Amino acid sequence: MDKEHRTFLNLFTPGPVNISAQARDALGAPLVHHRTESFEEILTGLIKNLKNAFQTADDVSVLTASGTGGMEAAVTNLLSPGDKVLVPVTGKFSARWAEICAAYDVEVCRIDIEPGESPAPEQVRDTLRRTPGISTVFLTHCETSTGSLTDVKAVTEAMNDLERSEGPEVLTCVDCTSSLCVDELRKDQWHIDCAIGASQKGLLAPPGLAFVCMNDRALGRMASAVLPRYYLDLRKYYEGHSGAPFTPAISLVCAAKASLDRIISLGLDKVWMACRSSAEAVTLVMKSAGLRPVATTQSNAVRAFWTDALDPEEVSGILRNKHGIVVAGGQQDLEGKILRVSAIGKKRSDILDFAKAFEATMAEVGRPFALGDITNELETILEEISIWE
């Protein structure tokens, strides 16, 4: 790998991703104190943007934590000892909901689903019908380990129909860490009670911030929940302190706001479309090389592909060491079986660099394919991602 690639790696990983120029500039600005009007204005601006990103009128809490911290905050603020929850498990990250709940001695009812598949609305509805006492359903919008996308709107519609006809109230809590600002997400229209996001993916900002957004139903549950919590006690975020009861990651807040300012200015619908086109371009390249997608319903945030007889570590090693491009492999049961590629925020030139690097890499491992065969189709797709230029 040459000197340029040693100093810059193009991250085609499902988070963290390469940060935006706006985020980089904000990180280099002088530090402000978190108990000043200037920082309050920045944080308020970030929260306003996040409400737009989530498509919600509800307030958003900004935590200094990873996305997992936001997930744990949702669990500890919505549940009480003895509660029973439902978790459809499609991979490593949806399983995390079950693991967090189990850590707090919450009873977990699992729906185990094959890797690459997504929970069907009728699966959730029928499980709720035959399993009394469930208070909350925890969903994962994009299962980052496989790239599968959950039709959250259809699931919540099925849950709402069941609640109206049979009751009782069941909250819906959705991990949107990978999908925020990447896949279509409409929290209020889709009747999501609690949604979680993070900074290091669709916001094109560094890792370290988690976002938790609750509606009135969730806030009502939070008022009566009694699981132990202190730093992640979201009630503190509604009791003053200008949204920051503890010292926040000030520079990360500034970077996230600056990056999200641009995303919102471009138009969320256009950003969703660009993310889909980038993901489709990656899929076109990978399928042309003979790799099969893992997910039946694919997220824009990450596309996963079965490598079959190929060694994914060899492929990813060549991409990194010779071309300066980083992709991800499989995790847990999928380790050594798949490659995961994310094109979040990528420009046309980035996608073309990836395509050429993958063509060269496949030739090196003895599986050549002709990128020229898909040039016209690829160029047509790439016309739709010009907003990042």
Helix content: 40-55%
Q: Care to count the β-strands? A: 15
- Strand-residue proportion: 15-25%
Biggest sheet record:
7 strands, mixed
Mean pLDDT: 95
The span between the termini is 27 Å
Can you tell me about this structure?
The chain is of the alpha/beta class and 389 residues long. It folds into 2 domains: 3-18 and 266-388, Aspartate Aminotransferase, domain 1, CATH 3.90.1150.10; 21-265, Aspartate Aminotransferase, domain 2 (3-Layer(aba) Sandwich). It is built from 13 helices and 15 strands. The protein has helices at residues 3-7, 21-27, 37-54, 67-78, 92-103, 121-130, 152-165, 216-224, 250-266, 268-288, 312-323, 348-364, 375-382, and strands at 10-11, 60-64, 84-89, 107-112, 134-140, 142-143, 148-149, 171-175, 194-198, 209-214, 292-293, 303-306, 325-326, 328-329, 338-341. Strand 3, helix 5 (92-103) and strand 4 form a beta-alpha-beta unit. Helix 3 (37-54) packs across helix 9, helix 4 packs across helix 5 (92-103) and helix 6 runs parallel beside helix 7. The longest helix has 21 residues, at 268-288. The two termini are 27 Å apart.
SSE diagram, text form:
Blueprint (H helix, E strand, L loop, with lengths): L2 H5 L2 E2 L9 H7 L9 H18 L5 E5 L2 H12 L5 E6 L2 H12 L3 E6 L8 H10 L3 E7 L1 E2 L4 E2 L2 H14 L5 E5 L18 E5 L10 E6 L1 H9 L25 H17 L1 H21 L3 E2 L9 E4 L5 H12 L1 E2 L1 E2 L8 E4 L6 H17 L10 H8 L7
Helix pairs in contact: 2-9, 3-9, 4-5, 6-7, 10-12, 11-12
Could you name the key traits of this structure?
389 residues; alpha/beta; Aspartate Aminotransferase, domain 1; Aspartate Aminotransferase, domain 2; 2 domains; seven-stranded mixed beta sheet; four-stranded antiparallel beta sheet; 13 helices; disordered N terminus
